[in-house]
Amino acid sequence: MTDAARHDVRHMRRALLLAARGRGRVSPNPMVGAIVVDDHGQVLGEGYHQQIGGPHAEVHALRAAGNRARGATLYCTLEPCTVHGRTPPCAEAVVAAGVRRLVCALPDPDERVSGRGFELLRQAGIEVDVGTAAEATAALIAAYLHHRRTGRALLTLKLGQTLDGRIATGDGVSRWVTGEPARRHAHRWRSWVDGIMVGAGTVIKDDPALTVRHVKGRDPRAIIVDGRLRCTPSARVFGGREPILATAIAGSSATQEAFVARGVQIWLCPARDGLIDLRQLAARCGAAGMTQVIVEGGRTLAAAALTASAIDDVMVYVAPRFLGGDALAAIGDLGIVELAATPQLADVRTKRLGEDLLVTGRVVYSCLQD
Would you write out the chain's pLDDT as a tens digit for each of its 370 residues? Predict the structure, then answer.
């Protein structure tokens, strides 16, 4: 690697650190960071996308640099936009600032941008280099990229289990399988995502609030999957922020009115034998502006989502203990009779959280699955 390439990587890493500061605040927009650097390697200005509807990263960085941006290099984690939305197009701001060179990690897959930003800059005589820190950037904004490419919210299955794959004792006691560091980490992720999905059984049995605790942050939208409309409007979860009831049954007008009175959005969804099509539900979440949703409970919903190939990645918190016997398994019956048909994980990573272990990975489905 040349000295120039090493400098590009170093500045892009700083831009990525800045981008991550917007986590949980900018969806459905991407987290983006930007830095303006002169020919001597001095940082003239930096910025990140701080909140939805506010200036984008490039604008913050260029404003901080002022007139010194002319002839400088702009490092940006994602292609400058060309869209007239809540804010003016960033690509036009980059041209107006007079920068000499753009170093960018990734093109924007949004069909409204997708190469147009780079083309506009090249036509203005700006040198454009794409690809520095592309892998790290793609990991940071994986949910955004998935949403723009598929139209669906990225569904992350979250499990807290013992070493033998159990989530509760035989009589349903589950507090607490994992330790406080793992629970704090899980709640931090709650504050970063757009929605948290649970099944009707979890609501009926546990009456969860699904709010953010242990850390500061915004509550996600609760999405209750209740194909047969078994939940009651008085459940605590329906008192949260813009809750969603996904069901296959409309119910009586009185029932609908009771849910609506609590601020619940009722989504009538396609279903087979009372089981909602979870891939279509992910698409509906995506259409509602949600880029990532955590699927948190229970075992029946987890099994249904995996069987439907709807889960995109997983976060499994594993506690160093055993339950065995009649304890509840983390995932219900997948109907798998051949090992070759099992969903598997790719890009597996592990992290210690106190005494617990976090295992993450991308789900790869077998072609043998129906």
Answer: 788 889 999 999 999 999 999 999 999 999 999 999 999 999 999 999 999 989 999 999 999 999 999 999 999 999 999 887 777 889 999 999 999 999 999 999 999 999 999 999 999 999 999 999 999 999 999 999 999 999 999 999 999 999 999 998 887 777 789 999 999 999 999 999 999 999 999 999 999 999 999 899 999 999 999 999 999 999 999 999 999 999 998 888 899 999 999 999 999 998 887 789 999 999 999 999 999 999 998 899 999 999 999 999 999 999 999 999 889 999 999 988 888 889 999 999 999 999 999 999 999 998 755 4
Q: Find out whether the peptide bond into 176 is cis, omega within 30 degrees of 0.
A: yes
From the list 58, 135, 257, 338, the catalytic residue is 58
Q: CB within 8 A of 155, min separation 6: which ones?
A: 197, 278, 282, 292, 293, 295, 305, 310, 311, 312
At residue 312, the 3 state secondary structure works out as coil
Residue 89 vs residues 95, 117, 190, 201, 262: alpha-carbon distances, Å: 11, 9, 31, 46, 39
If one counts every other C-beta atom within 10 angstroms of the C-beta of residue 292, the result is: 25
What whole-number distance in Å separates Cα of residue 141 and Cα of residue 78? 10
Residues 310, 275: Cα–Cα separation, whole Å: 13
Active site residue 58: yes
- The 8-class DSSP code of residue 182 comes to H
Residue among 205, 179, 362 at smallest CA distance from 299: 205
Closest listed residue to residue 238, CA positions, set 284, 206, 207 = 207
**Phi/psi of residue 48, each to 5°?**
-150, 160
Could you tell me the pTM of the whole model?
Answer: 0.94
Q: Among the residues of the chain, which ranges form H helices?
A: 3-20, 57-65, 90-97, 116-123, 134-140, 142-150, 180-192, 200-206, 253-261, 278-287, 299-307
Nearest CA to 78 out of 23, 26, 125, 145 is that of 145
